[in-house]
Amino acid sequence: MASSKKPAQGSGTQPSGSQSPSSSQHPSSGQYQTGAPSGTTPAAAPDVNTSSLNCVIAGLAFIGIKADANTSVDFGAIDSDALCVSMAHAIESCMAAQGWIVKPLSSDLKLLRKQQRRAPVSQLASNVATYSVPASSVGGGSQ
Amino acid sequence: MKRAVAFAVCLFAVALGAAAQPTCSSSPQLSYGATQAANLKVSVWSIDFIGCTNVPAFTPNAPITILLGTTSFTGTVLQYSAGDPNALIGQNPFVTFTLPNSGTSTTDAIEAQYKSSTATLQVGGKNIALALTEPLNVRQQSFQFGPATAGDTTGGGGSPSSGSSQAFRFQYSGTYTRRPPFSSRGDRKSTSLWNRFEKDVTLSIDTTDQKTGFVDNNSFDAGLYLPGLSIQSVLAQGRVGVDAKYSRGIHSPSPSNLDVTGAFSGWLPFLQTINIMPKGAQQRGSPASLALQYGYRSQRTTGSSTTGATFTGSAGYHFYVIDSYRVDFTTTTTWTEKPASGLPHTQHDFKAQILYASSPTSKFNIATSVENGSISPVARKVRNYFIGVALSQVFESRAGGNQ
User: Fold this and answer.
1) pLDDT, tens digit, 9 for 90 and up, residues B106-151
2) Concatenated DSSP letters of chain A
3) H or E element, residue B175
């Protein structure tokens, strides 16, 4: 289902290139550095499954955890809720940079830590893809 | 025509709300997403109905109203899910929606939540209180109590030279943290310098009902830190700041320490968790953590006081053995340039927790723990074997007032 989704192309929401797993973010101030490393040429936006896998790996890297698609994350060994929130925002920001809006993840990752779940990275990425929509489809509201 | 359609949509939403009112064991969680990179004119939010039943089904593109303090925001529903208990993301029912995000207005939704003390979902004419996933102010408390057995003061395992070898141990830790707010504008300019700092206050009590021979380590600690420092592959989530700590025994008020130190802490990505003899997938938790403090210590004893340099280093590490065991290890060393008479220059403390999981997917449970050493103005070298009951309580509250 999710694999059929395509990110916004040329919608004005696409950032400069794909997100690298090493991208960094300042969680407390909301300062995120997304997009490709300087000097690289923007590449075609990947599909939602590729984006979600890259972004979950990037989110883990942001809190210091090196992982790949075959790794399992032990949320019981993540040392604080604040790390889960930082990881959530890193994933959201990474997905946004690739033209996808994912469900806000903070409460999900805090819940995984509370449950001490062991989570395969591939399953996390699959779930992130399931709850992502193209940025171009996100409308506005009013106050 | 548009008005008629909008009216019909509102009626439908009201009817939905009236038909179903969630019953929750705790307040549903309100979260926002970091979507600056997509340059949206809205902010993206979700409400996760964790531990709730009878959750109303929200309709995509229908209006949804949130009260942040007294300010009402009407947004648009993006997604609704009834939840999948087997999933990692979206285990519980949730609704995602957008709220207006001018980026400069004082009524920006993300900033409005920090200026309010309540968040409310209005559905079916009723108000449902929401809990914020990322509050600015967090209070946490934990208690542990139970019997403890001490060896002698040289760590030889015999009875202490004086007093009982049995005691009732009580541990308490209460922490208040004020975190920097998230900036919806994606930069740090909108947050004042003072509010970019994290403020921590901690009261820690670790004592027994015995006057001698057991741990008696109690302190009050206040710190000011700049968080969010990262150096690729070297440091993650680091923070620097200053810290002031007063510590003393309850049974023996003298000596007491007053430390004023510079502090640094963070996680070290180049020291990942290791898996010894793994059979399945590599498991990862937080990498090694490191906390360093250096500054001055004023140590008071009866009739005298000394002042000199002090250094404290703490490290934490997780590792796995044949997939089923996890070891959580923490250690601390303190060095004092001019210790009070009779006290050593260096004190050590370590704790190792061994956890076991019965299957590759089940959670780890504590099998046993070992603790040795003590860092305190009073106890020097006491072994405590402690089996007790632990209680913890977490309170979270929002800022209440301007950032």
Assistant:
1) 567 877 777 777 889 988 778 899 988 887 888 888 877 777 776 5
2) -GGG----SSSS---SSPPPTT--EETTTTEE--SSPTTPPPPPPPPHHHHHHHHHHHHHHHTT----TT-EEEGGGS--HHHHHHHHHHHHHHHHHTTEEEPP-HHHHHHHHHHT-EEEHHHHHHHHHHTEEEGGG----B-
3) strand B166-178
Chain A hits for B231, Cβ within 8 Å: none
Distance from C-alpha of A3 to C-alpha of A143, rounded to nearest angstrom: 35
pLDDT at A26 (0 to 100)? 34
Tokens of B14: 């009201």
* B21 vs B54: CA distance, rounded Å: 6
Tracing tokens 């489809």 back to the chain, one arrives at: A137
Dihedral of CA atoms B278, B279, B281, B287 in degrees, nearest 10, equals: -10
What is the value of pTM for the model shown?
0.80
Q: CA A64, CA A61: separation in Å to the nearest integer?
A: 5
Helix (H, G, I), strand (E, B) or coil at B101: coil
The nearest CA of chain B is from the CA of A44 a distance in Å of 16
Is the Cβ–Cβ distance between B311 and A101 less than 8 Å? Answer: no
- The torsion of the CA quartet A78, A82, A84, A90, rounded to 10 degrees, works out to -130
Q: Which of B111, B132, B284, B395 to mutate to test the interface with A (most CBs of A within 10 A)?
A: B284
Cis peptide bond prior to B227, omega within 30° of 0: no
User: In angstroms, rounded to a whole number, what is the distance separating the alpha carbons of residues B196 and B240?
Assistant: 12
* Token duo for residue A25: 């973010």
What H or E segment, with its residue span, contains residue B352? strand B346-356
Query: What tokens were used for B168?
Result: 């009732």
Distance between CA atoms of residues B211 and A121, nearest Å:
51
> Of residues B33 and B305, which shows the higher confidence score?
B33
B91 neighbourhood in chain A, CB within 8 Å: 108, 111
Flag if A131 and B81 touch (Cβ within 8 Å): yes
- Please give the helix or strand (H or E) that residue B320 lies within, else none: strand B304-321
Q: Between A12, A30, A78, which is nearest B285 by CB?
A: A78
ipTM summary value: 0.81
Residue pair B96/B78 in contact by the 8 Å Cβ criterion? yes
Rounded to whole angstroms, the Cα distance separating B64 from B397 reads 24
Nearest CA among B108, B174, B116 for reference residue B392:
B174
Of A34, A61, A103, the CB nearest to B90: A103
For B158, the 3-state DSSP assignment is coil
Residue carrying structure tokens 């049974």: B251
**B32 and B45 in contact (C-beta within 8 Å)?**
yes
